[in-house]
């Protein structure tokens, strides 16, 4: 059984949508998240002068995109990206409190972060390569892997999911115990199954979806882009009028899952039904919270 962890978030301007820093008790790392509109102030902070890594997040052609890099002076490197890249909206700076990273450390971590992000497929990476490999001592490798393990906790707490593999298979014992839900679209002969697991809405391997998106507007929306991304990365495999989930996939909400299955925008809180009670997801949720 794992131990709980304590994360300290500091909202620099007293507002959650502006600059926020994150530290964890006993961890040497420091993470800063800043919207592009606040980047000038963020780069004036002491930690922006440190050696470290960074993640740029935004949208290109309505597709979530990220760029992962490292620098000996983060402020200078991100300043270069202000001039060269116009698509990113958020910057995440990853450093140590005492500025005790050196170049080999961040080069090693950069390669691992890029590999994890490519595996997770939560975003499209703009990086052209997989990062530069470097050799570290056995002790240094152990320290960097421990740093990365903690980063896997800190980044999602900040709403940064680029390293999270949403298509990871669920352990059978956990999946069987989680609340089960079903979505049925009789018009198109579709049936999909999902589980609620550790705060994620997971559509299960073998579930069905429509074979294409029901386009009603000229400009694609976020859910249509999400569906196309799941097709391109092999999670959703179309075959004529229907498509099949090739693996379990973790959605951020029941509505996102319902939209991908229906091939159109949808209210997942009404369309998903709790298997045991027959109630809509919304009604079941109200019942559970009232009991």
Short summary of the structure?
With 291 residues, this protein is of the alpha+beta class.
How would you sum up this structure, described in words?
With 291 residues, this protein is an alpha+beta fold. The protein folds into 2 domains: 7-157, no CATH class; 172-290, no CATH class. Helices cover 32% and strands 27% of the residues. It has a 7-stranded mixed β-sheet. Strand 12 (236-239) and strand 13 form a beta hairpin. The protein is elongated, with a radius of gyration of 21 Å. The two termini are 28 Å apart. The model has no long low-confidence stretch (mean pLDDT 89).
List key phrases describing it.
15 strands; single chain; five-stranded antiparallel sheet; 9 helices; elongated; seven-stranded mixed sheet; 32% helix; alpha+beta; 291 residues
Detail the topology: elements first, then pairings.
Blueprint: E1 7-11, E2 20-24, E3 29-35, H1 39-43, E4 52-60, E5 63-71, H2 74-84, E6 88-96, H3 103-120, E7 124-125, H4 138-157, H5 172-177, E8 180-185, E9 190-197, E10 200-203, E11 208-210, H6 222-232, E12 236-239, E13 242-245, E14 249-251, H7 254-262, H8 268-271, E15 273-274, H9 281-290
Parallel strand pairs: 5-7
Antiparallel strand pairs: 1-2, 2-3, 3-6, 4-5, 4-6, 8-9, 8-15, 9-10, 10-14, 11-13, 12-13
